[in-house]
Amino acid sequence: MDRDLSRRNLPGDRHYFSGEPAFLPRSGVLCGDSGIRVVPQQIGKLSALLNEIGFGESVHLFVEPRSQAAQPAVTVEAGAMWIDTYNAVTTKAGRYVQGGGCTTVGVAGLIQSGGFGSFSKKYGMAAAALLEAEVVTADGALRTANARTNPDLFWAIKGGGGGSLGVVTKLTLRTHELPAFFGGIIANITATSDAAFRRLIGQFISFYKDSLFNPDWGEIVAFRPDNTLAISMVFQGFDKQQAEKVWQPFFDWVRGSPVGLTIESAPTIVSLPARNFWNAEDLGKKAPGMVFTDDRPGAADTHMWWASNQGEVGHDPTGLFFVHHGVGSEEWSTMALPGRRDIFPKTCALAQLNPRSQWWAQDGRSL
């Protein structure tokens, strides 16, 4: 990779925000009629060039500078998404790296934002796994940050916000042994009255305290305005029968409730060997409907996302419309409807951010 930064337009340069992004020309967000191209902090600069995972087929050992202890680690360039990292670390090498539950999130952005993920109750925040980073600071210098070299910068980028202190170009992350299984449960329970819903909430909170408030369970339970309890959780270390045993008392209580509660969708519990949890082909066979894959021509066959994240990842089979989770703010989430180019924010239009994706202006012009 070309590491000659002397001819790049870098943070702090006079023209940095005026149309010449740091690493990826013709990338970013065009706002209003000004012609100014604002570059998303990590994806716009890095996704096309800095997407390598320095990993191979086995975990490398990283010597932690302060303790001098060798630790199994993976080195990831900042344009990689978590699905790329999980594929390399878990599917291929049989290790685990703490990251995000949404597979299309960028690695560097999550690390710099702290990063509470699906299995953080077991493995901690994603930022806690950072052992070393390569950072381009505002003066154009390419710096190494770890516990001994630039320790203040190292401390700050572990949750200090994406791009706040420089452009992170490479990260080295601690990896962990895999548990025997990763899995998930999906279920929806509806109450016919507010009173019944209050009873349901109270029972679930009690069940959570006794059975789920531990390192084995993560992700989301939602109490919705329509009196629905929506369960979408993951677990580690249990096979299917063990997971079903954990939930049996709660669902027995729901089924035995005299009035007011209906299990709208039967509980779906899937448990897989942990090494296959992000294997798109295996998931498609064992958990159909729970994942989507990127079926555009030329797309990596390892790229998948959970069905529950379809609202953040829009995808058109024609390849004309694709939105990476995490681009921009909540305002951009409305763009996640496949093929809809008529619902862009009024003042901005997206340009190409990925070499395999095409982004369109409001009037349909290819940028």
Account of the 3D structure:
The protein has 367 residues and is of the alpha+beta class. The chain folds into three domains: 13-39 and 310-367, no CATH class; 53-177, Uridine Diphospho-n-acetylenolpyruvylglucosamine Reductase, domain 3, CATH 3.30.465.10; 181-276, 2-Layer Sandwich (Alpha-Beta Plaits). The chain has eight helices and 17 strands. Strands 3, 4, 5, 7, 8 and 9 form a six-stranded antiparallel beta sheet that branches. Strand 4 (60-63) and strand 5 (70-77) form a beta hairpin. Helix 6 (194-212) packs antiparallel against helix 7. It is elongated. Mean pLDDT is 74; it is low at 1-48 and 315-367.
List the helices and strands and how they pair.
Layout: E1 29-31, E2 37-38, H1 43-46, E3 53-54, E4 60-63, E5 70-77, H2 82-92, E6 95-96, H3 107-112, H4 120-123, E7 130-136, E8 142-145, H5 151-157, E9 167-174, E10 176-177, E11 181-191, H6 194-212, E12 217-223, E13 228-236, H7 240-256, E14 261-273, H8 280-286, E15 291-293, E16 304-306, E17 348-350
Antiparallel strand pairs: 1-2, 1-17, 3-5, 4-5, 5-9, 6-10, 7-8, 7-9, 11-13, 11-14, 12-13, 15-16
Helix pairs in contact: 6-7
